[in-house]
Specification:
Blueprint lengths: L6 H18 L14 H20 L13 H17 L7 E4 L3 E4 H23 L8 H11 L3 H6 L15 H8 L18
Antiparallel strand pairs: 1-2
Helix pairs in contact: 1-3, 1-4, 2-3, 2-4, 5-7
Length: 198
């Protein structure tokens, strides 16, 4: 899937894929590739960090959905639709987000760079956790990796990514991206000592 260059359309594409994995999930308490997380926690992460980021930096208040612990699919649906509505709003193109770490950035670009990319990468976590198709677009993986590698020291020091996981030299773009952000591309719930059917 070739992603659009426009933030609203790119979010629509990435959000659609994550939504498909949410709809296909059957075991929300299944372990996820992020240490200490379950499938439910993947959704929790994506629905909980962005509202504060937008509220403090752009005075945008996203509507709250049901609690993730009660209805993870419903929480994701409300959140995803709210982000899409914000990006589709013509007025958003004229707004900026101000953040002490990244400075002043056009609002739609801030969402695209930090949030939509996060959804793309966490799609693998949810898919792998719930036993679904975990393939990501290799071209997008390669593009993200190329953009992140020159900033590795800054990215690593942020505390948002774990230590790099070494992968085989002939690994594909997806495995190399996952290794870079601290994921074991070969992770399975069984290898983590958990029952994948849980």
């Amino acid at each position: 899937m070739a992603l659009s260059d426009h933030p609203a359309e790119r979010h629509r594409q990435v959000g659609r894929l994550f939504t498909e994995r949410v709809q296909g999930a059957r075991a929300w308490d299944a372990p996820a590739p992020v240490a200490g997380w379950t499938a439910r926690d993947v959704v929790r992460h994506l629905t909980e960090w962005l509202p504060g980021f937008l509220s403090s930096g752009a005075a945008v208040d996203l509507p709250a959905g049901p609690p993730v612990d009660v209805d993870p699919a419903g929480a994701w649906r409300v959140h995803c639709e709210a982000v899409q509505a914000l990006l589709d709003d013509p007025a958003t193109a004229e707004r900026v987000l101000v953040n002490p770490h990244i400075g002043t950035v056009p609002l739609d670009q801030a969402i695209d760079r930090f949030y939509t990319t996060d959804v793309f990468m966490h799609t693998w976590d949810l898919a792998r956790s719930t036993g679904q198709d975990d393939r990501l677009d290799p071209d997008i993986c390669a593009e993200l990796l190329a953009g992140m590698e020159p900033m590795e020291e800054v990215i690593r020091s942020s505390g948002q990514y774990g230590p790099r996981v070494e992968v085989p030299e002939d690994a594909g773009a997806q495995a190399r991206l996952l290794g870079f952000i601290g994921r074991d591309p070969f992770w399975t719930a069984a290898r983590d000592g958990m029952d994948p059917a849980r």
